[in-house]
Amino acid sequence: MNKYKRYLVTSALPYANGPVHIGHLAGVYVPADVYVRYLRSKGEDVIFIGGSDEHGVPITIKARKEGVTPQDIVDKYHTIIKKSFEDFGISFDVYSRTSSKIHHKTAADFFRKLYDNGKFIEKTSEQYYDEEAQQFLADRYIVGTCPHCGNEGAYGDQCEKCGSTLSPMELKNPQSAISGSKPTLRETSHWYLPLNDYESFFKEWILENHKDWKTNVYGQCKSWIDLGLQPRAVSRDLDWGVPIPVDGAKGKVLYVWFDAPIGYISNTIELLPENWEKYWKDEETKLVHFIGKDNIVFHCIVFPAMLKAHGEYILPDNVPANEFLNLEGDKLSTSRNWAVWLHEYLEEFKDKQDVLRYVLCANAPETKDNDFTWKDFQTRNNSELVAILGNFVNRVLVLTEKYFDNKVPERNATTDYDNETIAEIPKIKQQIEESLDAYRFREALKETMNLARLGNKYLADTEPWKIAKTDMARVSTILEISLQICANLTIAIEPFMPFTAQKLLKMLNMPQLKWNSLGKTDLLKTGDTLGKAELLFDKIEDDIINQQVQKLLDTKKTNELNNYKPNAIKPNILFDDFAKTDIRVGTVLDCKKVPKSDKLLQFKINDGAGERTILSGIAQSYPSPEELIGTQVCFIANFEPRKILGTMSEGMILSAEDANGKLILIRPINQVKEGVSVG
Q1: pTM attached to this predicted model
Q2: Across all residues in the chain, what is the average pLDDT?
Q3: 104 and 126 share a domain?
Q4: Would the CA dihedral through 66, 70, 72, 75 be positive or negative?
């Protein structure tokens, strides 16, 4: 018995500093839309909330680079993103934005409620300040030299070369990205949400009561909770965002992580100004967040802590987060233009929204990162959509027009095989439902296609075209049952391929039926006139796919040209400075990939005096790390040990980049004694 009277479904707010690509669609918006369309078809009370996330430092950086205002940036990309979703049939009940007046008021009121109830702590700390620009610098506005790899273009929060997470204070030679001047340290005060106060709550609510959550979601939450939660700043010094609504907070706005999820609430208020509270404050509402894995902590720990602190809101029942989708073996990247942009796809594959929806769902990164390739896209279209679904529907309609003047024929006496085929339809319905209710959308789509496979097999086994000259009564029965399968398909495919469902409904000349009709075999009546038969899908030829592959190759070549810089010699140093570096040779005793990291390898080295562990970011260049066992490498022996992903790394392995960007280990030509110095 379902304890819920209604559903509130949200999808992650895409960041409005660029268009949306297939990774967004596969990770969040297609599964969310499938789920919502399924619930609507069942007649459930459900609202689907979306919107653009429009605050934060990346917006201001982009605006400064382009010489426009942050509002100009978000206006541009909010429009592009919203249209892309509409074009792909992502059926939001509302798609709004966090720069709206309603959102600013809702977010400010939310903060004020927590502030007035003493839910925040205030802390003063030193932060970098740009004297020329006369403003505090967010982490991304500070650049300098990475203390780990020497990259001179590292940001205050991360080095994008070696992947290290940084704080601005760790950077060497910090500079303001705004003025280029050296920043000074000034005291500033901010409000923090003490997540540590909610640890016992999360241990019960998540670790005990939500063991049914997806493994990747539960595991990430458990890791955070086990490590101990820390207070998190809810404000920052910036001039773009929701102003902090308290005295003495001039120049401070809500931190975007605090501001953005409140967008779900403000967008609901915009949709239902009189009735929004029953969706957010009634325990009979089921709240489900659809997100990518990079947002798990915010939606499972941070936002629930905010809601818990407020005291009036329900908490999410489930957060079915997906992993990431890669493109042709490489990570999707907005900055490198390594993506398939939705608005460009529609220009190049006109009226093929459902092909992409199908492929992204069939290959969804539900349990691990998956790869989108144009060859797989072509294969799934041609071998599945055209050859299975499209072929079945086309054969049935063409034969009905040929033998029965395009009218639904009569079902006569049925055979055991007919009855067995008919009995399979409600079984498939049950399998689809079980998969959708468990957020297993790939599995649900496969079961949906099994309905078309059932129809194809039935036609192939009964061969009505062969018996048409001798037994038209039998042909009549076969085609009537086949048409009922087609009618069932209009219901089953609608959540996944809504445009195709409408096309098929027109061909069958029937209205859209609700989910409770799925499984029945009297959806079309004898004598009903059918519409005109058309191809549901077109075959995609090699030259079309080759064009898309070449487009990506051109992008990669452009990136290489743009990123190529002759190796500039760094400033001279004193010999005494170099002498401080202790470079030695060691033998690799063991080498393996670091769990939960695509970049890191864990080396166990015989350094001549014993064993030491060193982590190195070269995993992508050495996919079979066990092959390095027994070889010798050069390493810096006197680096300050530091903990990375829970493991203490005691040095740095030396490597160099070849012409193709692959990292090559630096090692002696001949075997030498472990621990010998290099210099």
Answers
A1: 0.81
A2: 92
A3: no
A4: positive
Q: How many residues make up the chain in this entry?
A: 679
Residue reference for tokens 């010999």 = 575
Helix axis angle, 391-404 relative to 472-492, nearest 10°?
A: 140
- Residue 570: its pLDDT value, please? 55
pLDDT digit string, tens, across residues 317-375: 999 999 999 999 999 988 788 999 999 999 999 999 999 999 999 999 999 999 999 99
Q: Which helix (H) or strand (E) holds 58?
A: helix 57-66
Q: How far apart are CA 675 and CA 609, in angstroms?
A: 7
**Same domain, residue pair 312 and 432:** no
Is residue 342 in some structural domain?
Answer: no
- Residue 443 to residue 362: CA distance in whole angstroms: 8
The domain that contains 614 carries what CATH number?
Answer: 2.40.50.140
Q: Which of 212, 227, 242 is the last residue of a domain?
A: 227
Do 475 and 401 have their domain in common?
Answer: yes
Residue 486 sits in a domain whose CATH number is: 1.10.730.10
Report how far residue 355's alpha carbon sits from residue 536's, in angstroms, rounded to the nearest whole number: 11
Is 651 inside any structural domain? yes
Position 351 in a domain = no
In this structure, the answer to whether residues 619 and 513 fall within a common structural domain is: no
Upper half-sphere CA count for residue 156 (Cβ side, 13 Å)? 19
Mean pLDDT is lowest, of 489-503, 521-535, 577-591, for 577-591
DSSP string, 493-521: STTT-HHHHHHHHHHHT-PPPPGGGTT-S
Query: What angle, rounded to 10 degrees, do the helices at 30-41 and 416-437 form?
Result: 120
In the block, residue with structure tokens 């915010």: 298
Task: Give the number of C-alpha atoms closer than 13 A to the C-alpha of residue 174, restricted to the C-beta side.
Answer: 23
Domain total of the chain: 4
CB-CB contact of 528 with 511 (8 Å): no
CATH number of the domain within which 137 lies? 2.170.220.10
Q: Indicate if 10 and 145 belong to the same structural domain.
A: no
Q: Quick one: 93 and 11 in the same domain?
A: yes
- C-alpha 305 chain-centroid distance: 23
Q: Are 593 and 601 in contact (CB under 8 A)?
A: yes
pLDDT in tens, 542-576: 999 999 999 999 888 887 776 544 344 455 666 66
Residue with tokens 């075959």: 539
Q: How far apart are CA 68 and CA 308, in angstroms?
A: 39
> Are the C-beta atoms of residues 122 and 191 closer than 8 Å to each other?
yes
CATH number at residue 320: 3.40.50.620
419-462 confidence digits (pLDDT tens) = 999 999 999 999 999 999 999 999 999 999 999 999 999 999 99
pLDDT tens per residue across span 39-66 = 999 999 999 999 999 998 889 888 888 8
- Residues 173 and 159 grouped into a single domain: yes
393: nearest Cα among 277, 534, 295:
534
Neighbour count for residue 1 (Cβ, 10 Å): 2
One-letter-per-residue 3-state SS of 437-465: HCCCHHHHHHHHHHHHHHHHHHHHHHCHH
Residues 183, 223, single domain; the answer is yes
User: Where does residue 463 rank: exposed (0-12), middle (13-18), buried (19+ CB within 10 A)?
Assistant: exposed
- For the cut 90, the answer to whether the pLDDT of residue 2 exceeds it is no
Domain extent at residue 392: 373-517
Q: Is residue 49 part of a domain?
A: yes
